[in-house]
Write a structure and sequence with these properties.
66 residues, mainly alpha, 3 helices, elongated
């Protein structure tokens, strides 16, 4: 899908230098993947302390079930 956006050339050049990608397209795609991964990690961190933990749960015993 072709999408045209105005990107700050200084930011793009810096991303090209430190990102290790050879093309602008690859650099932008990598940046988007990293952005998404970071946001997903932040969402997981928000759950920390909100989930109930069953102290009586024995995960080792569950591995033995067949």
């Amino acid at each position: 899908m072709a999408t045209y956006v105005s990107i700050d050339p200084k930011l793009l050049n810096k991303a090209l230098q430190i990102g290790g990608e050879k093309t602008k397209k690859a650099t932008v795609n990598k940046a988007l993947r990293e952005f998404i991964a970071r946001r997903e990690q932040e969402q997981l961190l928000e759950l920390f302390g909100k989930l109930d933990w069953d102290g009586a749960y024995d995960y080792k015993r569950e591995r033995l079930r067949r």
